[in-house]
Design brief:
Length: 189
């Protein structure tokens, strides 16, 4: 399951799911086998990265099926986004995987904090959690910096392509004119 990474902290922030451009189909719209497979992948991932969250999800599945469905859908969106990151920027993907593991740990620490009765132990957990959150914050900042650099490289590439197309404008127009006149209906210009 290491190929599918999930930013657990995102699902822990309440009923709202962050926007992702990779919109999966609603699980209810899928054939039963596919729906079951997607839900199982998401739950297996949660079990691996945040066992206590997995326990909560299983309870939620029975007691609050609508909320459960919403969280599963959010998880699938995040998984799709991260799979895309794996393809476009393997280095950033590795960092995202580390972040996911730490966020899983942070999420479980928050659950332990809520369950703990001893105020002394709660304070210790809270301090450790805060330190971990600072570490995650720094890693997320590095991930954002990596994304900015990737986007800057893409912008430079597009600028060069634009200059090249401007330089070849006459050839491009002549080529398209020939295609249109001689009936080759190719819309590639």
């Amino acid at each position: 399951m290491a190929g599918v990474i999930l930013m657990l902290g995102l699902i822990a922030r309440g009923p709202h799911c962050p926007h992702h451009p990779y919109e999966p189909p609603h699980p209810g719209m899928l054939p039963p086998e596919e729906r079951k497979e997607i839900i199982e992948k998401a739950l297996n991932f949660i079990r691996e990265y945040a066992p206590l969250k997995y326990e909560e999800m299983m309870k939620m599945k029975e007691e609050e099926p609508m909320k459960f469905g919403h969280q599963i859908r959010c998880i699938v969106k995040i998984m799709m986004k991260l799979e895309h990151l794996k393809e476009v920027d393997p280095e950033a993907y590795k960092l995202a995987e580390k972040i996911a593991r730490l966020e899983g740990k942070a999420f479980d620490m928050a659950i332990k904090y809520k369950r703990e009765q001893s105020e002394e132990k709660r304070e210790k957990i809270k301090k450790e959690l805060k330190d971990l959150l600072y570490q995650i914050f720094e890693m997320r900042q590095r991930l954002r910096e990596m994304r900015i650099k990737r986007l800057e490289r893409e912008i430079e590439r597009l600028k060069e392509m634009l200059k090249e197309r401007e330089r070849m404008k006459d050839k491009i127009v002549e080529h398209h004119l020939t295609e249109l006149i001689f009936g080759e209906d190719i819309i590639s210009w």
